[in-house]
Design a protein that fits this description.
alpha+beta; 12 strands; 16% strand
Length: 401
């Protein structure tokens, strides 16, 4: 048995490959074992994160992307620690990861003569400054990613434990949580930039260049961002409002307002992404800005020989027969009237009427209007009221010229 352990120890001490330094078999075993444990931890973390994201009610596509990014971050960090744990030199790969990228943008150092020989001039010589390396960039990205996940979880806790307890309005909750999210992301970005050793003077130069880019090609993006701030704070449109954009034939309920765009849930359960500037510059009908009520207009034409009083009574009876039409408004319903009929026009071949009736939910206006059309058709057949069609008289002149 002792001979077996001796041979096994010799095997583990055997050089397997040679990088910058010889790599023993036991080092490779430690490296693989560390990665195996890391994969197990990554799997557990992935399952826990999926449950957390489901609890936060994230969209499925965003959830999958976050989980993929989280897995990559964990595995890259695990590989880095595995090399250190196994004592394996990363060789050229490590030199690439820790190469100072700022040296690529610095002028070459000029040699100066001294009594003892040549040495580089002290231009740019600052060994204490942080280096901009690929590894630092990765750590900075990991910080921003972690702050994003922390923000989502903190918003969920804040909404459930604080905002709902104080019975704050839904749109006000949205504004508070949006500002809270942007604040945490900004803090994460600043911490990330600080870890990279970037000073605010460099940021001022970068933003100066961005201002030139804005002047040339980013006006639309900036317009949408400013419009998003107007929508969030001025509140012409709120979460849950039923809106209609006439110029582009969009009708639906507002589900979210972001800095660049607003998401509108259409009647057929399709999400329509509308740029915020379009909601500011174009006419928008907000059907639920103050309340959910809506007045339906049903236009009807009858023949000239029809009894107008009979037509009026038939239309009012149809309106009162529909269960969703408001028949007796309460004092709290400002400007809401009982159903009534207007005689609007003497047409070329018809008498034109309009039935006006209020309903409590504007989202049901299309269905209620369709029901009223069906009911009017049946009522007119019952009362022998004729709906005319356009008539034209054509006279042919057969005289030869």
């Amino acid at each position: 048995m002792g001979d077996f352990f001796q041979r096994f120890g010799d095997f583990l001490d055997t050089t397997a490959i040679t990088l910058d330094e010889p790599v023993k078999v036991f080092q490779i075993a430690k490296f693989v074992g560390f990665l195996a444990v890391s994969l197990l931890i990554a799997g557990l973390l992935r399952r826990w994160s999926r449950r957390l994201f489901n609890r936060l009610k994230m969209a499925e596509n965003i959830e999958d992307r976050l989980l993929a990014v989280l897995f990559l971050i964990v595995m890259i960090i695990a590989i880095s620690f595995a090399f250190q744990f196994a004592g394996i030199s990363t060789g050229g790969f490590g030199k690439v990861l820790h190469f100072d990228l700022t040296t690529l943008f610095q002028p070459s150092q000029e040699a100066v003569e001294t009594d003892t020989g040549e040495k580089p001039s002290p231009v740019g010589e600052n060994t204490e400054k942080s280096k901009l390396t690929l590894a630092n960039l990765f750590y900075g990205f990991a910080i921003v990613f972690g702050m994003f996940v922390l923000s989502k979880y903190a918003q969920w806790v804040l909404r459930r434990q604080v905002l709902q307890a104080f019975q704050i309005e839904k749109h006000t909750q949205f504004i508070i949580l949006r500002i809270f999210h942007l604040t945490l992301i900004t803090i994460g970005i600043l911490i990330s930039l600080k870890s990279l050793g970037m000073n605010f003077t460099s940021l001022a130069i970068i933003f100066g260049g961005l201002s030139i880019g804005i002047g040339f090609g980013l006006q639309n993006l900036v317009s949408n961002l400013i419009s998003g701030l107007i929508l969030i704070f001025e509140r012409p449109i709120k979460i849950g409002d039923l809106v209609e954009i006439m110029d582009v034939d969009i009708f639906g309920r507002v589900s979210s307002i972001n800095l660049r765009s607003t998401v509108i849930m259409a009647v057929d359960e399709k999400e329509i992404i509308v740029p915020n500037s379009q909601l500011i510059t174009e006419p928008v009908h907000n059907l639920t800005h103050y309340n959910n009520r809506f007045r339906i207009r049903v236009q009807v034409s009858v023949s000239f020989n029809s009894d107008v009083e009979l037509v009026k009574n038939a239309l009012i009876e149809v309106a009162h027969a529909h269960p969703q039409v408001i028949k007796e408004p309460t004092p709290e319903m400002d400007n809401v009237t009982v159903p009534f009929v207007r005689f609007t026009n003497f047409g070329e071949s018809s008498l034109d009427f309009e039935l006006l009736a209020w309903i409590p939910d504007s989202f049901e206006r299309f269905d209620v209007a369709s029901d009223l059309h069906f009911m009017i058709w049946e009522k007119f057949k019952e009362c022998n009221i004729t709906i005319p069609f356009p008539q034209r008289d054509v006279h042919l002149n057969s005289e030869e010229r």
